[in-house]
Amino acid sequence: MEAGREVFTALWRNWPATILFYGAILVHALATLGVHEFFGVNDSYLYEILKIWVFEPLYGWLAVLAGAMAVLVCTNSCA
Predict the structure, then answer these.
(1) Which of 32, 49, 52, 72 is 20 to 30 A away from residue 65, measured at CA?
(2) What is the pTM of this model?
(3) Are 17 and 11 in contact (CB under 8 A)?
(4) Residue 40: Cβ-neighbour burial (10 angstroms; 0-12, 13-18, 19+)
(5) What is the H or E stretch that residue 17 is in?
(6) Residue 78: predicted pLDDT
(7) Which helix (H) or strand (E) holds 73?
(8) What is the pLDDT of residue 65?
(9) First-last CA distance in the chain
(10) Using CA atoms, how far apart are residues 46 and 63, in angstroms rounded to an integer?
């Protein structure tokens, strides 16, 4: 159990991963704000679902893959 936690923390608690994570959040927030301000898009939850699964489905599948990997890491490191 402790070995799994060490692998998990090595992957998530480092500067490149932190910069990538917060950078992705910042880009998403700025893009959502920009689309709303410049094009008047109503950035509701329905819009986000349509954007991920209809307009850019690759991002939806990447989110599913990331979620599955997180579940696998958590279940293997916590077992």
Answers:
(1) 32
(2) 0.52
(3) yes
(4) exposed
(5) helix 15-39
(6) 63
(7) helix 57-78
(8) 87
(9) 6
(10) 17
- If you write DSSP's letter for every residue of 24-68 in order, what string do you get? HHHHHHHHHHHHHHHH-----HHHHHHIIIII-HHHHHHHHHHHH
Which amino acid is it at 56? Answer: E
Tokens of 24: 């992705």
Residue 69 carries which side chain, given as an amino acid letter?
M
Q: What is the pLDDT along the chain (79 residues), one digit of tens a residue?
A: 677 777 777 777 788 878 888 888 888 888 888 888 999 888 888 888 888 888 888 888 888 888 888 788 777 766 5
Q: Does an H or E element contain 78, and which? A: helix 57-78
Q: What letter represents residue 12's amino acid? A: W
